Amino acid sequence: MLFLKRTPPPVFASAPYTVPDAETLRQQALQRGWRRSQRVAQRRLALRWLLWALPRYVLPAAALLGAVFGLYLLYQHATKPNTTQTPPAAATPASKLITAATADGLPLRLSPQLQTTQPVQGTTADALGSAIDPVANPILKPDNSLNSKEP
Fold it and tell me: What is the distance between the alpha carbons of residues 118 and 123, in angstroms, rounded to a whole number?
């Protein structure tokens, strides 16, 4: 890529380029090697300290903080008043509930409010029938020519 290519630094004609001698190159290489070994040694020492301190101090402190936070949440949940609202079906008295039996013979309690056959206010059967658009819900037929393995 053209924009990632590095351009060489400009060369000034007044400053002649000198080639360093072997001793200077050796000293520079030794200094670079010493700096690299110092960075590696610092990184290894930091890793050793981390591996020593992590199980001894950090993990127990994190577990203690987690336990304290969990107990706080449990205490908050236990002292919070129960303000849940009952649904309308559960609020109706038991005498108004209709008991029916399922196919298994288990009792099923139905609310009379749910058994009304009257339409909901503001809607009629004609409005509901016209709301279904045959263009929006076309009958789909599979097209096997795309998936067929025959020539």
Answer: 10
Cα gap 92→113, rounded to integer Å: 10
For the entire predicted model, the pTM comes to 0.35
Q: Is the pLDDT of residue 102 over 60?
A: yes
In whole angstroms, how far apart are CA 128 and each of 48, 113, 119, 120?
74, 22, 10, 11
Over residues 37-89, the pLDDT tens digits come to 999 999 999 999 999 999 999 999 999 999 999 999 999 888 877 666 555 55
Q: Which of 109, 108, 111, 74 lies closest to 91 in space, CA to CA?
A: 111
How far apart CA 91 and CA 114 sit, in angstroms, is 13
Specify the DSSP element, H or E, that contains 124: none
Question: Can you say whether residue 148 is alpha, beta or left, with left for phi > 0 and alpha for psi between -120 and 50 degrees?
Answer: beta
Beta strands per DSSP E along 3-136: 98-101, 107-110
